[in-house]
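Input.
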Amino acid sequence: MGQTQNLAQMVAWLGFFLAFIFGYVANKTSFCTMGAVSDVVNMGEWGRMRAWLFAIAVAILGTNLLAYFGYLDLGQTYYTRGTVYWMGALAGGLIFGIGMTLAGGCGQRTLVRLGGGNLKSVVVFIFLGYSALVTMNGIFRVVVDALLRADMFTLHLNGLQTLPSLLGLAGKTAPMLFAVGLSAVLLVFVFANKDFRESGDNLLAGLVVGLVVVAGWYVTGHIGFGENPETMEMQYLGTDSKLAESMTFVGPLAYTMDLWAYWRDKHVTFGVASVFGVVFGSFIYSVFNRSFRWEYFNSPQDMFRHIVGAILMGFGGITAAGCTIGQAVTGVSTLAISSFIVFFGIVIGAAVTMKIQYFLLMRSS
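Output.
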């Protein structure tokens, strides 16, 4: 029992360390997925969007290399299960995209800003986490199951819901080659732009975020795969889902709220530790870079907008089973079709909301 607990604790500490790197680099480079969409929609600037796509390409390549060499079983993640809640993925992604726009950033950006002294993020943290918790286990779950996960909006597949599996690419080599090809297409698009190639921050952000996701899969899918002394069966230790996991920042916020409420019955997991790792990494960067400063709401309307956005992110993130990192990078790295649906849903939801905000601003001026 002690050895199992030690292994679970090691997985959690490694999650904290990886998230610390994530938070430090995200603050340093201003990596922001909502900002990436905003730059494209409002200014036609693709720098941060290419950084996001670069992270996705690195994550796809690295994750599938882990699977090819036997360090990760892609069938043992909640992204790749054969049940596809396509309406939940689409609606959840759209709602999350709307919410992150209203709240000024997604889950990971909230944690990064919190580490830099932004008190708005404290409010978003609390409301996002609570909304996620009641969507996961509370009253919002009833709505999700009854409407967005009804049988008419669900596909049941015989195998995994990954693109290679749907294309009939069996074995280890064919799926790996597919992943390499998709990564190559993304990398060609990303590096075709000279400005991006000369942007140290965007290059660093994309590379580090992608590698952190790959490392997270290795930690939970290989290091954390051990024997449970009670059942004598091999299982994934130190994760909330009891499966292999990597970086995601909505579900872990719900589990953080749950942990705080029922401390004696819970343990710090990889996901929960990653929440605090991002905050601490961002904080350390802001202190040493002397960029730490207190920020708060400009008006009651600003606070209300952030609260509504946080609630929508919590609901949308759990409904979609992930966020701009959890689904759009970590999930996409497994090549799960639901993850691609969520990614496009988030981008569309955010882009439309930004256009509406701009229209209302112009109309009032």
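The two ends are 65 Å apart (CA to CA).
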